[in-house]
UniProtKB/TrEMBL annotation:
One GO MF term attached to the UniProt entry: ATP binding
Membrane topology: Peripheral membrane protein
Native organism: Paenibacillus lacisoli
Family: Belongs to the ABC transporter superfamily.
Any one of the GO BP annotations: cell division
Gene of this entry: ftsE
Keywords: ATP-binding, Cell cycle, Cell division, Cell membrane, Membrane, Nucleotide-binding
Subcellular location: Cell membrane
Name of the protein this chain belongs to: Cell division ATP-binding protein FtsE
Residue stretches making up the ABC transporter domain: 2-228
Amino acid sequence: MIEMQDVWKTYTNGTHALQGVSVKIDRNEFVYVVGPSGAGKSTFMKLIYREEVPTKGQISVNGFNIGKLQQRKIPYVRRNIGVIFQDFRLLPRLTVSENIAFAMEVIEAPKKLIRKRVPEVLELVGLKNKGNREPSQLSGGEQQRVAIARAIVNNPSVIIADEPTGNLDPETSWGIMQLLDEINFRGTTIVMATHNKDIVNTMRKRVIAIEHGKIVRDQMRGEYGYDF
Ligand code: ADP
Ligand code: ADP
């Protein structure tokens, strides 16, 4: 479902962030992306959700060649990919429910569906009674749950998570991991960049290691493999 063939990414300042990456990720996989800071992990993820385009090579997501995607088709691809960040990126002046509804409004979902779907995802992420709060009234772990609710509300086939536990304490991180595992179990592919050694070594899922813009390791039931 996600396939890269000899993908290169050079930023306009000349930084070679990815250098000849080829990889296949199947439907329903859960993949950890590990490696040192500056290795190219975020770039790898940004190419999948088309925040960046490759300098060379091909990327397909669900059969769409997203490097060459026509502008008008970008929304179709984006709605099929939910993204989660280390810093949550919620809209501060909106309530929790409004943050989630917003993701449906931008794809022009019918109002009736929004009213039905928002409480469903709130319940799924364990925030049934917090829909009327503002993000600032929630803990970090709760804010990340809102971000996850927003990422899954349109039923994407893929979730991209860039260090989703990076700002959370270990116990809260485990709660977030359980939620992502549950979402994966329900049929969503997850690609997650992380520096969380404990989580990677306990969950034993596929691990792709990137160093200096290249995939240097790709293991099923892999390990974190670094001391940082
Ligand atoms: P993370 O890897 O935690 O997602 P970022 O992607 O924000 O972090 O940044 C990773 C590295 O890339 C950092 O060293 C940062 O300084 C650098 N970086 C990010 N954006 C830019 C940019 N626009 N120009 C130059 N360097 C950048
Ligand atoms: P990681 O997520 O593993 O920390 P990144 O993909 O963020 O790595 O960065 C890979 C390399 O590309 C780093 O050298 C970083 O500084 C650089 N980089 C990232 N984003 C930009 C950008 N927008 N412009 C220029 N350089 C960037």
